[in-house]
Amino acid sequence: MFCRTLKLVLLAGVALGAISCAKFPATGGGTDQTRLLFSMTMDGPVRFGTEAGSAGAPYIYMVAIRTSTDSNPIDQGPIPIISSPWGNGFVAGNATHFVWWDPTQSASQYTLYRFNDATLQQWFQAGIPVGIVPISVGEKTLKFELNLSQLEPDPLLRPLLKSIQVNFLTMDRIPQTGSTKFWDALGDSRNVSQINQWITISLANNGIYDNQRAGGLEVRGDQVDPTLDLVDWSVEVSLR
Fold first, then answer.
1. Which of 8, 67, 126, 163 has the fewest Cβ atoms nearer than 10 Å?
2. To the nearest whole percent, how much of the chain has pLDDT over 90?
């Protein structure tokens, strides 16, 4: 069983650290076999775009990730883009990767992408998660699993990773024009002082990190559309 005792440290975002079950040296992080299991749940069914009354296109559901060689990075993690200038239309701050759930993809509903530059304007497909849970119309929870080697393919750099910063993003579209979009992310999206939240997760220990242990960081009802209203999330770190 993974250790489940956590301590919560509030910084610019939210940093979560697990009391150790097994530890790597202070100079190291996860191994190439370290697994990361992500889960996000909406208040209503995930929008496939095939439902009656829908516009024919799925809504956007993503997990934005930033890998770090710091145990507790104090600079900004991934945050949602909520107004113009739109940039890439979905994430700002510091991000290195994102996983996009897209039911129109034939190979997998989930695809891992990696950013090419610090401006987050260019990215490429880096693969498919090693574990996925395909969902059907009417379901509310997205779940997938990454191997740490997918986030850092270089075996010399991989042991230097000590943490990841994570945000969960939902939106009705990825805008380049227009003035609004409907969205949700970690924090209370109704409160401008709480919208730029993310979680920092240690790669040094086994652990399960979720909304309850983060003190209810994500609240129900901060997005009026239940298919976009993020209500629960978790990240499980499994050292192997």
1. 8
2. 76
- Cα–Cα distance measured from residue 157 to residue 137, given in angstroms and rounded to the nearest whole number: 40
- 96-143 pLDDT, tens digit per residue, is 999 999 999 867 899 999 999 999 999 999 999 999 989 999 999 999
Terminal Cα-to-Cα distance of the chain (whole angstroms): 13
Q: What angle do CA 219, 143, 94 make, to 5 degrees?
A: 65
- What does residue 149 show for φ and ψ, rounded to 5 degrees? -65, -20
Q: How do strand 199-202 and strand 14-18 relate by DSSP bridges? A: parallel
Domain that holds residue 61: 25-238
Spatial separation of the C-alpha atoms in residues 115 and 180, rounded to whole Å: 25
Does a structural domain hold residue 113?
yes
Interatomic CA distance for residues 128 and 225, integer angstroms: 29
- Pick the closest to residue 184 from 232, 138, 135 (CA basis): 232
Is residue 3 in some structural domain? no
33 sits in the region (left: phi over 0; alpha: psi -120 to 50; else beta) called: alpha
Q: Which two tokens stand for residue 218?
A: 């994500």
Report the alpha-carbon distance of residue 183 to residue 201 in Å, rounded. Answer: 24
* pTM assigned to the model: 0.86
Total number of domains in the chain: 1
Widest CA span in the chain: 54
Looking at residue 170, its amino acid is T
